[in-house]
Amino acid sequence: MSHLMNTYNRQPVAFTHGRGCYLTDGEGRVYLDALAGIAVNTLGHAHPEFVAALTEQAGKLLHVSNVYRVAEQETLADLLAARSGLPEAFFCNSGCEANEAAIKLARFYGHRRGIGNPAIIVMEDAFHGRTLATLSATGNAKVQDGFEPLVPGFIRVPYNDLEAFSSAARDNPDVVAVMLEAVQGEGGVHMLDPFYLAELRRRCDERALLLICDEVQCGMGRTGKWFAYQHAGIFPDVVTLAKGLGSGIPVGACLAGGRAAGLFCPGNHGSTFGGNPLAMTAARKTIELMESGDLVTHAARIGAWLKETFAFALKSLPDVLEVRGQGLMLGIELARPCGALVGQALAAGLLINVTHERVIRLLPPLVFGEREAKELVEKLVPLIKDFLKE
Ligand SMILES: *Cc1c(COP(=O)(O)O)cnc(C)c1O
Prior knowledge:
The protein has two domains: 15-47 and 294-389, Alpha-Beta Complex (Aspartate Aminotransferase, domain 1); 51-292, Type I PLP-dependent aspartate aminotransferase-like (Major domain) (Aspartate Aminotransferase, domain 2). 49% of the residues are buried. The chain starts with 14 loop residues before the first strand and ends with a helix. By secondary structure, the protein is of the alpha/beta class. The chain contains twelve helices and 17 strands. The protein is globular, with a radius of gyration of 21 Å. The protein has helices at 36-39, 48-58, 71-84, 95-112, 132-137, 141-144, 162-171, 194-207, 277-292, 295-314, 340-347, 370-389, and strands at residues 15-19, 22-25, 30-33, 88-92, 119-123, 154-157, 175-180, 183-184, 190-191, 210-214, 238-241, 252-256, 320-326, 329-334, 350-351, 353-355, 359-362. The chain has a seven-stranded mixed beta sheet, with helices on both faces. It has a four-stranded mixed beta sheet with strand order 1-2-3-15. Pyridoxal-5'-phosphate (PLP) binds at residues 94-96, 99, 127-129, 181, 185-186, 214, 216-217, 242-243.
């Protein structure tokens, strides 16, 4: 019997190594990776220059402590500020931690304005993590059931509904912020309308509310821009990052600008491991290699090709409801639950994911080439057709 806590329904495979967009298991079987560890392995597996940078850093310094200056943090904060437009960064180790920092920042902002019970507007179908505050912000009963009492201070509204947002903000004088994913990941690859986001920005400004974008999944080039909010031409006050930021090394960030800048002082927040030199090197090198390989533009181009090709190949199937998403964050929604497809794809040498019961989710590494894209279509389309025939 396993001594692991039973927190995952795992596929019956264990990988031993990887290279680029392929993983190999203990029996020597090779799999095309169209999941990237859920949007984590930006540079694919065992990228030689990435491995060299990590190896070099590991041989110099792994951890010191945030009671000292950490030069690698200052460098990464500069790189993120230049690309996001948000001038300040706090570093942590995961997405939920980045969101915890954002939620604390919003509450702190409220208290500064004399609001004793600050509330944050959140979206239906949102996913923000599994700590108590972030699962309370999440819009999925399965994530919350059994863990009540939930953390108070969240007001839920449907996404892409400006009237619902405005009436929630009007009815609740305690509202200090709105938190959202520009492209919802776990919730089924739903895009927030760029017009909705731009108008939300305007309405937040009118009421001096913080706009918090959870870019843990949709950020770091995945949608074909550095950050998904950039498709709407806006600047949030707070942006959270993790998943793809370190290409497989755990690292998260909470960026702040606008009304959220300059709020925290020493003692307000912290992390033992957050911002350690190894994680900072992983993120810096990820950004450098994304830029030298032009991977953001590449994600936009190869993602558009995949979306179009899947839509064309599946258009005659009435049980394929929609092919949607942006860049290399794609969803194929079927008319019925399709979790079984994950195992069928695995048996065919392909790694995919199903979220929200009926949505096939594709999150390949950003180094996914044309050859891999063709192979993905050639493998997945017949699997979907066979599945829908069953
Ligand atoms: C995965 C995810 C999180 C949680 O990240 P962890 O690193 O698992 O804590 C938060 N928000 C979004 C949008 C995510 O996709």
